[in-house]
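Hello,

I think I submitted the 2'-deoxycytidine-5'-monophosphate job twice by accident. Can you confirm which output corresponds to this input? Input:
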Amino acid sequence: MITIAIDGPAAAGKGTLSRQIAEEYGFHHLDTGLTYRATAKALLDAGLPLDDEAVAERMALEVELSGLDRSILSAHAIGEAASKIAVMPAVRRALVEAQRAFSKKEPGTVLDGRDIGTVVCPDAAVKLYVTASPEVRAKRRFDEIVGNGAVADYAAIFDDVKKRDERDMGRADSPLRPADDAHLLDTSEMSIEAAFQAAKSLIDAALIKKI
Ligand code: DC
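Support: Only one job matched these inputs. Its output is below.
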């Protein structure tokens, strides 16, 4: 069993990269952001408050990793709510336990999020920290929305990216930061294909070491 940990800020390209890696190696993939989003959605659907840690913990304990639907959970309002409940230690404890259990699946796993290399899987065979400048990330999100035929406001998206970064990096419990032994991949001026090739070399080297 081998675990690949992929962390980084919102819209840095880590989701696409993780899915490509999982497909290439036949590994199971978990986007851990979806577990925070599913917890937040359960609270929103039940009309429960987003600032009651005990209630949020109960919802986190009920999240089923097999039932995470990206198309439903990607809604902007759910992301906003997720980043609020992600600061709660009891919520994090519940979700991290489920994520750790997932990371042990054979033949291998790819987990992406904010604290995989630092907290969830500190012994991961390969740790990647995928980042890009806030401007580049906001532009990618803008292009994605416009590409889907919707109207987007670059200034509002840029503002949102900066706010999300502050919340993810500034929280007391498991803030977003690269693990000491993480490999940095700055995708500001790197195509996703180049990032994938760089990741592949690191993973191939780790697999050889394991044999
Ligand atoms: O990556 P995302 O936008 O789906 O994440 C939603 C929120 O969950 C985001 O504010 C950060 C938080 N999150 C976290 O705290 N730890 C993780 N491992 C993954 C996501």
